[in-house]
Amino acid sequence: MPNQTNPAATVKPTPGKPLAGQNALVTGANSGIGKAVALAFAAAGAAVAVNFVTDPAAADAVVQTIRDGGGKAIALKADVSVEAEVEAMFARAVEEFGSLDILVANAGLQRDAAFTQMTLEQWNKVLGVNLTGQFLCARAATRAFEARSAPAVSRAAGKIICMSSVHQVIPWAGHANYAASKGGIKLLMETLAQELAPKGIRVNAIAPGAIRTPINTAAWQTEAAYKQLMTLVPYGRIGEPEDIGRAAVWLASDDSDYVVGTTLFVDGGMTLYPGFATGG
Ligand code: NAD
Q1: Closest-CA residue to 128 (of 198, 79, 81, 175)
Q2: CA gap 252, 55 in Å, rounded
Q3: CA of 14 relative to ligand 1 center, distance in Å
């Protein structure tokens, strides 16, 4: 049955620029995956708010790269785990761009420790940034989508992409706080998807496997570490941030308009139980 209620269903895509005319905010966008998503979004035609909390020079460099390519971008400082900073950041983004269409809640970190050694501070830090940060940003984005007065630029009334991890399903010894935060993101995302779909807002997640970024240098920097890592990756190579950037463009675009509440695993097969490849 055709969509009879979506007033934006007639929005025409621009060839080669699936996000043309759309405004996005990407958290943790001055490094790694967030940076690649910001650059891919800009190449796809979106204006991008580049969130950062440390290293403003790196955020400015991302903004400059986008502007040099003829795109529109601003850098916005905010700690995603602090409510007032998140609220101020979204207000600034809407003030600057006029409206908001896409959030990529990407900011995240690790504070690893054996379970009996894990401090409450390490636990709270990871849950605060990885999970509460996604709650605060998703809530602010949803309010911005609902307040929209600008003409529709997409079939959906707004899109949220939560950056999760294969560790939303793979337990990870020595990383209880991180795995708990990503497991939490899974059901946060699915609940938001269920609650917001009737409003025309699509919420999905990307679960990266091992991606070459500063968060996990120990896993790929030496030849021995890389070889060990490959025992976990059936496809036989580490993921690059651009692998996630391309997936995010698709998930934010009308090409995925009927995709709601899904986690897209971009992991080279890491979640395929590679230990069983030879019979277990
Ligand atoms: P990264 O360290 O390069 O990037 C993390 C970004 O988050 C940085 O820009 C950092 O400054 C930012 N950040 C941290 N705390 C913040 C805060 N309080 N407020 C705002 N920003 C904050 O690492 P990455 O690999 O690019 O990680 C990005 C996301 O991808 C994270 O959520 C991570 O859990 C997830 N992820 C990464 C991998 C991987 O293999 N690299 C795998 C699965 C999931």
Answers
A1: 81
A2: 27
A3: 31
* Distance separating alpha carbons of residues 276 and 255, to the nearest angstrom: 35
Residue from 68, 176, 72 nearest 124 by CA: 176
Please return the burial class of 23, using the count of CB atoms within 10 Å of its CB with bins 0-12, 13-18 and 19+: buried
* Ligand 1 interacting residues, C-beta cut-off 6 A: 27-28, 30-34, 51, 53-54, 79-81, 106-109, 129, 163, 165, 208, 210-211, 213-216
Decide if 178 is catalytic.
yes
Report how far ligand 1's centroid is from the alpha carbon of 19 (Å): 23
Cα(15) to centroid(ligand 1), Å: 31
pLDDT in tens, 198-233: 999 999 999 999 999 999 999 999 999 999 999 999
Alpha carbon distances (Å) from 204 to 23, 26, 153, 169, 238 = 18, 15, 19, 16, 23
Q: What is the pLDDT of residue 59?
A: 98
For the stretch 31-82, pLDDT in tens is 999 999 999 999 999 999 999 999 999 999 999 999 999 999 999 999 999 9
